[in-house]
Amino acid sequence: MQNVRMRFKKLMPNIRDGFGVMILFLVVLALASVATAQTYIVTDLGVLAGDSASEGFAVNSSGQVAGCADTSTGVAPCSGSSPGHAFLWTSGTMQDLGVLDGGTFSIPNYVSDSGEVTGESLDSAGNYLPFLWTESTGMIPLPTLPGATYGIAGAITSHGVITGSSNSGADPSVIVPIAWIKSGNTYKIKRLPSLPGATVTLCCYVNDNNEGAGLVIFNTGNFHGFLVKATGVKDLGTLPGGTLSNAQGINSAGVIAGYSNSSTSGSNFLTVAWDPSGKIHNLGTLPGGTTSGGYYINDSNQIVGFSSTATSASDATIWTQKGGMQDLNNLIPPNSGWVLVLAIWINNSGQITGYGTINGEDHAFLLTPP
């Protein structure tokens, strides 16, 4: 079973390939957004000792980056093709977070403002299992459903609840959403609701109102983004005529970022946002591009992700209400040597992490606005 970030990537067929016609729509969201007419400072986060590639997956409010480093070449970093370890980067220092039980691979999904990291690790038995890492405990496994061979830990809410997913020995092919609730020095596991017909539910990126956005795969093979909150679970649907969508981030106002196909885009995905009423908006692509995807969204409604262009299969992007979709390669110092490929996370200060190429290698980056 693939890790959650791999799954989100691989569910987007050929995201680095070129496709058809450019579509660009600007949408007015609920909150005012910050323009991106600025040049970011680019920081190369480097790699762990012995590795050649890295990717940043999440950045907290103080600029700590959780990511993964491995020895991959020719494929996206930390896609599972090579052994790799999760790391926490803090002010120029990259700390190896290790693996569970003698395994060979770990990958993070979230870093809290207190520096706690959640994710999943391949153990010595070949199972992907959820972990929590803290400075005091190191990497520890989180409980799973009985007999589980797969589990992920997604986000940590403002109340300390961890969200994620797990299968069980009863039916290993079915993956359900769960939450871990701290009780003393341990975590108790609780199943969360999903949608009818779901076989896989990957949960969840959560805001301070305990609203979660994630991905559900139905028994038909189609997949949709979903929203879960105290009142229940909602299928977010797709663009008109589409069959596939994914929700990859939610901000404090309940605006959700992700991607969807449509009747006009065919198999190509387009960056979308769902406003708090649940209406989906097409945010399009960069000029000349035909496919794009939105990843995380901050409280200023800035959405980061990627888009193809007329000359590139994938450029890292940022979307804002005022600026529309912009290529982050045009917002960094010229002649920096960087080609920014994918932007995954943006915090409320506007710092962005993802990966790009520098000196012929794929490295995690941190972009910091002036």
Written description of the protein model:
The protein has 370 residues and is mainly β. The chain has a single domain (4-368), classed as Neuraminidase (6 Propeller). Helix content is 2%, strand content 48%. The protein has one helix at 4-10, and strands at residues 41-46, 53-59, 65-70, 84-90, 93-98, 105-111, 117-122, 128-134, 138-141, 151-156, 162-166, 176-183, 186-191, 198-206, 212-218, 223-229, 232-237, 245-250, 256-260, 270-274, 280-284, 292-297, 303-307, 315-320, 324-327, 338-346, 352-358, 361-368. A 4-stranded antiparallel sheet has the order 1-28-27-26, with no helix packed on it. Strands 2-3-4-5 form a 4-stranded antiparallel sheet, with no helix packed on it. A 4-stranded antiparallel sheet has the order 6-7-8-9, with no helix packed on it. Residues 1-36 have low confidence and may be disordered.
Write the layout of secondary structure elements.
Elements: H1 4-10, E1 41-46, E2 53-59, E3 65-70, E4 84-90, E5 93-98, E6 105-111, E7 117-122, E8 128-134, E9 138-141, E10 151-156, E11 162-166, E12 176-183, E13 186-191, E14 198-206, E15 212-218, E16 223-229, E17 232-237, E18 245-250, E19 256-260, E20 270-274, E21 280-284, E22 292-297, E23 303-307, E24 315-320, E25 324-327, E26 338-346, E27 352-358, E28 361-368
Antiparallel strand pairs: 1-28, 2-3, 3-4, 4-5, 6-7, 7-8, 8-9, 10-11, 11-12, 12-13, 14-15, 15-16, 16-17, 18-19, 19-20, 20-21, 22-23, 23-24, 24-25, 26-27, 27-28
